[in-house]
């Protein structure tokens, strides 16, 4: 079978990309490994979604349902759910396996990667101690409670202050679980400020920055965790070790873009984001393969995921039709205070381009500058910048001379 555009993943990124490509008159196929479209949004029953994209506040399932309805009603989009993609080639051949459609092989004019991300586990962070029942990643606990209707425990500790962990602190409190403590390795939260306020402060849940778990203890069920303050080298200080009794531990210790599928096909990866290196159209280093959403870099807001995926889907459609064009390439570089940017390449020409970035620490009263060819093309004073919040600036492409460098002064 041939489609103009093949989209791998039916979450918010995949659906937005598919709709954008179909809007340009392309035939589109979407592969989703779950039983329905929506991805992680289907288990995020809290509100706060859609404020930017739909200009109203929605729950995760409501946000997903709006896109899913559009996808189902789009005549040019074919959806394979319960379809596990086995491989994708540089020539954009996608092979998938489905229990009802069997082995599916698709040739595509362009491919959009939208596989999302996965959570880091206890093994990934080398959590020491026993392995009793009661240790979950925050997302697993979220699914167990919100989708499957199970209780995960009575007294909980959360390691890490990622957004999912913060939201689950509130969610478990609603379910009658006593959340005793949140521990964060870094001196700042990796989640949104609003989630710190609404999910911890409003429920008087304490958070200790610069602390981590040293070991867990329990036989059949978790009964205690030991924790300690960490030094400048991020190593625990044994003399500060304390313990807290609990039967549940949630891990909210980071997300990893789900890129195993593209290992070995020549796509250049960014070690800082664990996603592909991409240009302003979200095209990877392999022509015709695009990436968007959390598979490219971990986002804060699903609204930004949708906007980025629409850009990638539209560009993929243009590529498939042979009309994607751009001007002279300009590398985007990081300067003082900036950890990484997306995209990593922009093009000279007319119009504007959005550049997203995260800082490498907490900064107050700084001026963000973007320079090209020795000239300042963007400057704005910011009262505070934190790594937990993605930042965005708009660059006038006509002002680009050569490479673009972002820095804090």
Specify the CATH homologous superfamily of the largest domain: FAD/NAD(P)-binding domain
CATH fold description of the largest domain: FAD/NAD(P)-binding domain
Low-pLDDT ranges:
none
Cα separation of the termini:
54 Å
Helix count equals 6
Sketch the major β-sheet: 7 strands, mixed
Q: What count of structural domains?
A: 3
The level of helicity is 10-25%
Overall 3D shape: globular
Counted beta strands: 29
Average pLDDT level: 95
CATH architecture call of the largest domain:
3-Layer(bba) Sandwich
Percent range for β-strand residues: 35-45%
According to CATH, what is the class of the largest domain? Alpha Beta
Q: Which value, in Å, is the CA radius of gyration?
A: 22 Å
Structural class: alpha/beta
Descriptive overview:
The protein has helices spanning 12-23, 60-73, 138-146, 163-174, 193-200, 302-320; strands at 2-8, 28-32, 47-49, 58-59, 77-81, 84-88, 93-98, 102-113, 117-119, 135-137, 155-159, 178-184, 207-209, 211-218, 222-229, 242-245, 248-251, 255-257, 269-270, 275-276, 289-291, 329-334, 338-342, 345-347, 352-359, 363-372, 375-385, 391-396, 404-408. The chain is of the alpha/beta class. It has 3 domains: 2-118 and 256-320, 3-Layer(bba) Sandwich (FAD/NAD(P)-binding domain); 121-253, FAD/NAD(P)-binding domain; 329-408. Strands 1, 2, 5, 6, 7, 8 and 21 form a 7-stranded mixed β-sheet that branches. The chain has a 5-stranded parallel β-sheet with strand order 10-17-11-12-13.
């Amino acid at each position: 079978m041939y489609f103009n555009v093949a989209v791998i993943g039916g979450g918010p990124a995949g659906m937005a990309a598919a709709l954008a490509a179909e809007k340009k008159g392309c035939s589109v196929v979407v592969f989703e490994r779950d039983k329905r479209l929506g991805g992680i949004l289907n288990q995020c029953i809290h509100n706060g979604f859609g404020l930017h994209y739909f200009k109203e506040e929605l729950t995760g399932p409501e946000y997903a349902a709006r896109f899913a309805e559009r996808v189902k009603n789009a005549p040019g989009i074919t959806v394979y759910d319960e379809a596990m993609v086995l491989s994708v080639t540089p020539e954009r051949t996608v092979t998938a396996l489905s229990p009802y459609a069997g082995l599916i092989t698709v040739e595509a004019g362009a491919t959009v990667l939208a596989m999302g991300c996965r959570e880091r586990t206890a093994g990934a962070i080398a959590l020491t101690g026993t392995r009793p029942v009661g240790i979950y990643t925050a997302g697993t606990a979220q699914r167990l409670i919100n989708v499957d209707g199970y209780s995960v425990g009575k007294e909980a500790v959360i390691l890490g202050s990622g957004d999912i962990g913060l939201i689950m602190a509130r969610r478990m409190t609603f379910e009658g679980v006593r959340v005793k403590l949140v521990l964060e390795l870094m001196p700042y939260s990796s989640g949104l400020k609003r989630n710190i306020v609404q999910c911890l402060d409003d429920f008087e849940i304490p958070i200790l920055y610069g602390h981590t778990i040293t070991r867990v203890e329990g036989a059949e069920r978790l009964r205690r965790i030991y924790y300690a303050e960490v030094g400048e080298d991020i190593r625990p200080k044994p003399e500060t070790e304390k313990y807290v009794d609990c039967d549940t531990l949630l891990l909210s210790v980071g997300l990893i873009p789900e890129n195993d599928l593209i290992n070995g096909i020549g796509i250049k990866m960014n070690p800082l984001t664990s996603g592909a290196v991409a240009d302003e159209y979200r095209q990877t280093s392999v022509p015709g393969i695009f990436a968007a959403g959390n598979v490219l870099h971990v986002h804060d807001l699903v609204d930004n995921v949708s906007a980025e995926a629409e850009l990638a889907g539209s560009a993929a459609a243009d590529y498939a039709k042979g009309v994607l064009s751009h001007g002279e390439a300009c590398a985007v570089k990081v300067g003082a205070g900036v950890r990484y940017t997306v995209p990593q390449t922009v093009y000279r020409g007319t119009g504007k381009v959005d550049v997203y970035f995260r800082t490498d620490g907490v900064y107050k009263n700084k001026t963000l500058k973007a320079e090209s060819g020795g000239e300042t093309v963007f400057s704005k004073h910011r009262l505070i910048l934190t790594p937990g919040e993605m930042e965005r600036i708009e660059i006038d492409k006509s002002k680009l001379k050569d490479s673009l460098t972002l820095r804090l002064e």
